[in-house]
Structures are given as C-alpha cells and as structure tokens.
What does this fold into?
Amino acid sequence: MYAINVEKLTKKFGDYEVLRGVDLKIAEENFYALMSPNGSGKTTLASIIASTRSTASGKIEIYEKET
It folds into this structure.
C-alpha cells in the first residue's frame, strides 16, 4: 500500500507546462525529500497533492482514495 500514489500528473499555466507526466509512489512509513532546481514544479506538485491546487490531468491517490 502506498501513502501517496501519483500517476501521469500534468499541470499547465497557460502554454507553459509546469509538470509533465509525473509518477511518484511513496510507501507507508517512508520519508522523501523533493530536490531540484528552482522553478521545476516542487511547490506545484506539493500543492496538488495537498488539494490546494487543481490538476490538469493525471491521478492522485492518498491511502488509496483518489483526490
């Protein structure tokens, strides 16, 4: 069972594609850190997982419940 399961997540702001086909699986009782350059979509990804920002396409499940 995954605590967080993200599949083929895509997000655009206008014509600018911020996230493209993101897949992320975080198992229970694990800790992960997202590290990448500024402007690469980390905050957007976290906001979408937290349901404070909408997705353009893709699937997000938190403890097997789709958000």
User: Anything to note?
Assistant: The chain has one helix and four strands. Residues 42-49 form the longest helix (8 residues). The first strand starts at residue 2 and ends at 13. The domain at 2-66 is CATH 3.40.50.300 (Rossmann fold).
